Amino acid sequence: MIHLSPSLLAADFANLQRDINEAQAGGADYIHVDVMDGAFVPNISIGVPVVKSIKPHITGVVDVHLMVESPERYLEVFREAGADLLTVHVEATKHIHRAIQQIHDLGAKAGAAINPGTPVSVLEPIINDVDMVLVMSVNPGFGGQKFIPYSLEKLKQVKALAAAAGRDDLLIQVDGGVTLANAKEIIEAGANVLVAGSAVFDGKATKENAEAFVKLFQEV
Predict the structure, then answer these.
(1) Which active-site residues does the annotation give?
(2) Which of 41, 73, 75, 106 is 20 to 30 Å apart from 185, CA to CA?
(3) How many CB atoms lie within 10 A of CB 27?
(4) Which residues contact 30 (CB under 8 A, 6 or more apart)?
(5) How crowded is residue 139: how many other Cβ atoms within 10 Å of its Cβ?
(6) Cα(133)–Cα(187) distance, rounded to whole angstroms?
(7) What pTM does this model have?
(8) Which strand (E) or helix (H) includes residue 123?
(9) What are 158-208's pLDDT values in tens digits?
(10) What domains does the chain contain, in order, with CATH numbers?
């Protein structure tokens, strides 16, 4: 099954509940929350109070992507705020395995993210411990960037790594520059959770945009 995880970074922050409702009405079963600290990435976004506020309006998976230094400091508070899935960057922590264990101890699913310049090989020691791998297909920190073509090769490598480990259940997420035009080749490369920002939240037809992605997922 392919999942759509619209990124709130592209939503109307004055109308988050409306945009979330429309995306879900269109078939989105995840909602992606980008948390940025201005240190690990050159931008600051939203935090715990926003996640806590939107949690009651999300019927699917609250997908929290921590683009922050030393994410271990924030795992418990985001879990308490309603995160179902917590993703941390291997580049942001000295102890990625410990962070994954901490997430599981909190009762959430754990994801490990890698930036465009990070090789897939860093995932080998933890491939049996994570619930999801997130391949960043843009440099993190800002929405609206163009998809980096080499990301397709990295998705294939993650898929092969998962297959070698017998991890048919592994979620493989891609984030950055995802559109209806490139979604098919992204899925064919191995992704089964697609994060889309401006391609869903365009301020005009959020429900219809989500429906178009879900329709494409069913045809692939």
Answers:
(1) 34, 175
(2) 41
(3) 18
(4) 3, 4, 5, 6, 60, 61, 63, 85, 193
(5) 14
(6) 14
(7) 0.96
(8) none
(9) 999 999 999 999 999 999 999 999 999 999 999 999 999 999 999 899 999
(10) 3-219 (3.20.20.70)
